[in-house]
Amino acid sequence: PLMRIGLSATQKPIEAVSRFLVGEGRTCEIVDIGHARPRDLDIEVPPVPLSAVMANDVWELVYNRLAELAGEHRTTLVFVNTRRLAERLSRHLSERLGKDAVAAHHGSLAKEFRLDAEQRLKRGELKVLIATASLELGIDIGDVDLVCQIASPRSISAFLQR
User: Carries keyword ATP-binding (predicted)?
Assistant: First the structure.
């Protein structure tokens, strides 16, 4: 008889995936070892009232805090929700940390620029990489010491993946 083995770290619901693999009405064995890793999470907000549009002086606090955090770590990955914010953060952090220490990563950049940024981060040559969802799935970027999320991500699953 034909044997099928399905492996995944991300597919849910597992029962639906198993039905897809073996067909409706057939039985199979599901082995779900689960995986819960400890998370070290902190939430930081500027020490001013939050509003829909942050003032420039509040953004300065954010840039300075990110630069401070990046200085305390070997590699830092900063996720943002828009390409525009990725470019803006990249510019402001470059002013604080040096042009060669910071790069942006988003879908509007040429593939060779994105790959170069990924490799520089992986080799430890890049201090900070600011990325949109373009870096979120299926890319091996090696060890990252710190991950920051600016603003709320679009979903809980995106947040956990990041």
Answer: yes
Percent of the chain at pLDDT > 90 equals: 44
Are the beta carbons of 78 and 129 closer than 8 angstroms?
yes
Residue 18 identity (one-letter amino acid): S
To 10 degrees, what angle do helices 83-97 and 56-71 make? 60
Distances, alpha carbon 155 to alpha carbons 42, 76, 160, 162, in Å: 18, 22, 9, 11
How would you label 27-66 residue by residue, b for 16+ Cβ within 10 Å and e otherwise?
A: eeeeeeeeeeeeeeeeeeeeeeeeeeeeeeebeeebbeeb
Paired tokens of 83: 């390409």
* Contact (CB, 8 A) for 39 and 48: no
Other Cβ atoms less than 10 A from the Cβ of 117: the count is 23
Q: Where in the chain is the domain with CATH 3.40.50.300?
A: 56-161
In this prediction the pTM is 0.74
Concatenate the DSSP letters of all residues of 73-114 into one string: SS-EEEE-S-HHHHHHHHHHHHHHH-GGGEEEE-TTS-HHHH
Beta carbons within 10 angstroms of residue 151's beta carbon: 12
pLDDT of residue 148: 94
